[in-house]
Amino acid sequence: MNPALLASVLSLLATVAAQPYDHYDMGWVNGYRQGFNFQCPHGELLVAIRSYFSEKEGSDRLWSFECQPVPENLGEPSDCWWDDINRAGLEWTSTCTRNGLVAGIQSKYFESTLDREWQFYCCYYKRRCPYSCMKTTDVPEYYREEGEMVIPAYGYFIRGAQTTFSGVLRDRQWKYILCRLTDFDCEFENL
């Protein structure tokens, strides 16, 4: 191989490798240590969640979300609301009440715990009931890593989450609760 060409390629690779990976251009809905309120457009539900951790920025995460229109057979949501607040520094499990599905998330950062409180924005579709529910694996897989969850199959929806909080590492892992919805009306609430 031509030594001049090799030197040029190595110089280019060194320049590219030296460029910092900028996590500030990923469409994040918050800055570090800042609260946020994200809601999908009317008739859409959350289908993807991404986060990036920084210890140096208060052991906090940047967050981004993606939405997708619901299938036509579900129709329009008959009601939407902010569900219960899940406190900072605690482990918790939360599913939307009244068979709701997650259409938004809001969060507030607390310096005293280096953690956030969370609240789901839930929407109810007629009297449809969740079934075939499952939990994802831990997102992120290990504390302090970048996290990403995308609905694995069409027809599944986020119903809630279970989280663990490490007081030592000051980070949270999530298991998202995903469900399908019946094609028929049902009279009961699936918990």
UniProtKB/TrEMBL annotation:
Q: Where in the cell is it found?
A: Secreted
Return the protein name. Dermatopontin
What biological process terms from GO does the record include?
Answer: collagen fibril organization
**By its UniProt entry, which Pfam families does this protein fall under?**
DERM
Q: Which residues form the signal peptide?
A: 1-18
Report the PANTHER family cross-referenced here.
Answer: DERMATOPONTIN, DERMATOPONTIN-RELATED
State if Disulfide bond is listed as a keyword: yes
Native source organism of the sequence = Poecilia reticulata (Guppy)
Q: Which InterPro entries match?
A: Dermatopontin
The question of whether Signal is a record keyword is answered with yes
Q: Which family does it belong to?
A: Belongs to the dermatopontin family.
Q: Name one GO cellular component term.
A: extracellular space
The UniProt entry's coiled-coil ranges are: none
What keywords appear on the UniProt entry?
Answer: Disulfide bond, Secreted, Signal
